[in-house]
Model the fold of this input.
Amino acid sequence: MQPAIHVSNLSKTYDSGFQALKNIDLEVRRGEIFALLGPNGAGKTTLISIICGLVNPSEGTVLADGHDIVNDYRAAREKIGLVPQELTTDAFETVWATVSFSRGLFGKPANPAHIEKVLKDLALWDKRHNRLITLSGGMKRRVLIAKALSHEPQILFLDEPTAGVDVELRRDMWEVVRLLRESGVTIILTTHYIEEAEEMADRIGVISRGEIILVEDKAELMHKLGRKQLTLHLQYPLERIPATLGAHDLALAEDGTELTYTYDTQEERTGITGLLGDLNAAGIDFKDLHTRQSSLEEIFVNLVRERQ
Amino acid sequence: MNLQAVRSIYTFEMARARRTLLQSVVSPVISTSLYFVVFGAAIGSRISHIEGISYGAFIVPGLIMLMLLTQSVSNASFAIFFPRFSGTIYELLSAPIAYYEIVIGYVGAAATKSIVLGLIILATAGFFVPLEIAHPLWMLAFLVLTAVTFSLLGFIIGIWADGFEKLQLVPLLIITPLTFLGGSFYSVDMLPPVWQTVTLFNPVVYLVSGFRWSFYGISDVSVTASLLMILVFLTLCLGLVAWIFKTGYRIKP
Done:
């Protein structure tokens, strides 16, 4: 089956000389939710902007639903809806007018029933006569989504959809995205919240410094991200790890006051109970403990390092 | 052609004008009326006829031109500058719409507004001075061509400007002075010979002269020259707009 988005050998160098994207190859499957993760400045927005027509590519090609985004831009863009990262809306228009305008801009004849459905799905119906300037940030974000859905796109780009959005609205949006996916829309979202990718995505792509570092099924990546560390602050420093604890994956800090245990949250048994029992048996007391999950940022750094 | 999109942009812009009726229509009408009172009634009563036309009537075409140029430029420049400034231009760029369709939508709306305004001012002038229009079709042709040309110029300024100052700069520092010095309020014949020559380098002279000819059959320069000048301007602006979209200048990195 033809992929929804097919990116090959895509590069972008801005006039300033900054190379935002380096030979990107990427395929987004039809009907999936694809999360593009990456630290700030990694090139997420540039990639989306090129696909949607806001930025010219320097090299390479992009096909949206099989249509070249440069030579066959009309057919390509008709398929695409974009929700930008910034809350950019008109000020004095009403919700209804701005969403209807978007539909017209994409060449679709007016369809009040569809606009009504979109507004109701996004809980904007009551606000349809309100001017945009009077809406809260969360409501404006919904309006941007409504605008992007006004022309019934097959492929929807959500650039940081939940940045600065409260928890309740975030849940609502996830629900809307799920409904869209069920109706067959392909969704590409960028985020730097791992929680969001975990909640929503079928597959995950990681981008760093303009390069796609990996593309994997969520389950697989979560397994990698799932590693946690338990740190024990010891009552008395140790010179070395006692042989009786050799079965556990332990590391001793240089000054001997901290023991670090690395484990996998995705596995059925984390081994923590066994470790604590063995510590007790070995007569090792600890005064405090904490656990931490390796942050996404760290994982990116590690991934980049591995590649170099 | 994505006619639906052109229509959407056009109606969106026209709706904006309706919403800001006071500033888009009422204020130009008031300021023009003031010109009539000051120049036409107060000063004009002391100026004898110019080429057989009363001074009040003589300045009507010039005043309409003055409003037409400034309003076309400010309408179109603001219309495209604001989406750039607020960021909503992302939607135009991501829509399945060709550049020329964007231009038709915005420039068409801006030109329509200034043409309507020009006609309103013409009607207003009728309250102050007796009007006669010798060549109504030519009058309309000059009106439309000038409105379209200067709306295109406004569109270019709106894309070039990177702040509100620059947006005001060209209308304030170039268009208004050129119009005032372009024979809106006097006949070029009234100037000393040296200035008559200098004036011929002012493109607005040709616009005002041609427009006045369509009213009273009198002109400072030949009508053909006026028409040519507008067409040269129009071509220049179209070329610039084409270049802007080809290179993505200031809109698409």
